[in-house]
């Protein structure tokens, strides 16, 4: 890997063109030379927080194979910079690139708690688990400054409404007090993403995420508090972390996880170009092997968009991964079960307090 050409602290190494834009952008050599001669930085590599004001915050999930009915995202874009993240493509709808823009231009929905409260108070709304966040991580670095996730959890508690969380950040432990209160009423389920036990792998795949040690600690602390935790071993990337399935399953169950789930990586939309560029710069010796194995799982391409198949894969390599996951579940999760969340408490709390009559 050429350290001079590699952008440290980021996953994507380029801004791919936005498919919805009539314009394309490139960094020309003559511009880079001008910056060098002038002693200027061509790319400051800084994160920007950009406020946006949507009219609604809760989204109905229509994809039949996602495993959730409703989701909400306080932030669009994610500074974690996970190179494989399917949410990158959504940044194009906002007029940005799925590449570096996704990691550096973070859109902040300051009205999220207010919009959530309006939704939960609606007479037409029937309690159904809402997941934070179906798209970008609700505990990414922006949360330290804006605390929108914590404020939304307070709303869920106030209205006794079930909520799920997907994260790979140990910042979740900051909100342990609220999570415990939600759990008293059976209103909370946590999904912690653990993709590798190797810090080197974690660092290149997910450059601004919590360390693996802290993620396992988060699973342990939450589990010891009686809060149900599911471990997301996702995505499984052939040739990068596929050999770790058993060791990952063993580690998360030893720390208290009640269940595990997985997906096989798929590189839809702009991800194919972003991932290919990244792996050729980061892991040039194994780049072709990894790309070919991913293609083997998706009928010769880097992506399969068919519902029910796209995240499971097909072919010999996918079958091997499925067999390993089945063995892991048999060995480490045979007598464990993730509970269903309570949807029966919300109706009496529509106005924020228990109705007596």
Automatic annotation (TrEMBL):
PROSITE patterns: RADICAL_SAM (PS51918)
The protein's name: DNA repair photolyase
Record-linked InterPro entries: Elp3/MiaA/NifB-like_rSAM, MJ0683-like, rSAM, rSAM_sf
Domain Radical SAM core: 64-301
Domain of life: Bacteria
Aminoacyl-tRNA synthetase is among the record's keywords: no
Coiled-coil ranges from the UniProt annotation: none
Metal-binding keyword on record: yes
Organism of provenance: Maribacter orientalis
UniProt GO molecular function: iron-sulfur cluster binding; lyase activity; metal ion binding
Record keywords, A-Z: Iron, Iron-sulfur, Lyase, Metal-binding
Annotated CDD domains: Radical_SAM
Lineage of the species this protein comes from: Bacteria, Pseudomonadati, Bacteroidota, Flavobacteriia, Flavobacteriales
């Amino acid at each position: 890997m050429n350290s001079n050409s590699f952008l440290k602290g980021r996953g994507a190494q380029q801004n791919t063109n936005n498919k919805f834009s009539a314009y394309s952008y490139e960094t020309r050599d003559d511009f880079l030379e001008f910056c060098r001669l002038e002693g200027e930085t061509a790319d400051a590599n800084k994160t920007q927080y950009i406020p946006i004001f949507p009219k609604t915050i809760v989204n109905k999930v229509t994809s039949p194979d996602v495993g959730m009915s409703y989701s909400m995202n306080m932030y669009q874009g994610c500074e974690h910079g996970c190179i494989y993240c399917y949410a990158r493509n959504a940044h194009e709808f906002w007029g940005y690139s799925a590449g570096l823009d996704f990691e550096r231009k973070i859109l902040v929905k300051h009205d999220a708690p207010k919009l959530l409260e309006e939704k939960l108070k609606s007479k037409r709304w029937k309690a159904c688990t809402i997941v934070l966040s179906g798209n970008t991580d609700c505990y990414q670095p922006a949360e330290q400054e804006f605390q929108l996730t914590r404020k939304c959890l307070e709303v869920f508690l106030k209205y006794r409404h079930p909520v799920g969380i997907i994260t790979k950040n140990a910042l979740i432990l900051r909100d342990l007090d609220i999570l415990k209160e939600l759990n008293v009423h059976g209103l909370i389920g946590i999904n912690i993403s653990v993709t590798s036990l190797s810090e080197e792998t974690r660092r290149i795949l997910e450059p601004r995420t919590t360390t693996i040690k802290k993620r396992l600690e988060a699973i342990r602390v939450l589990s010891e508090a009686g809060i149900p935790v599911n471990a997301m071993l996702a995505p499984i990337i052939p040739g990068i972390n596929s050999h770790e399935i058993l060791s990952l399953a063993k580690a998360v169950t030893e720390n208290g996880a009640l269940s595990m789930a997985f997906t096989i990586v798929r590189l839809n939309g702009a991800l194919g170009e972003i991932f290919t560029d990244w792996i050729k710069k980061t892991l040039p010796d194994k780049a072709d092997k990894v790309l070919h194995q991913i293609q083997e799982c998706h009928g010769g391409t880097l992506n399969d968009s068919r519902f029910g198949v796209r995240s499971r894969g097909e072919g010999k390599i996918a079958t091997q991964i499925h067999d390993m996951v089945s063995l892991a579940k048999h060995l480490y999760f045979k007598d464990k079960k993730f509970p269903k969340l309570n949807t029966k408490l919300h109706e009496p709390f529509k106005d924020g307090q228990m109705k007596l009559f």
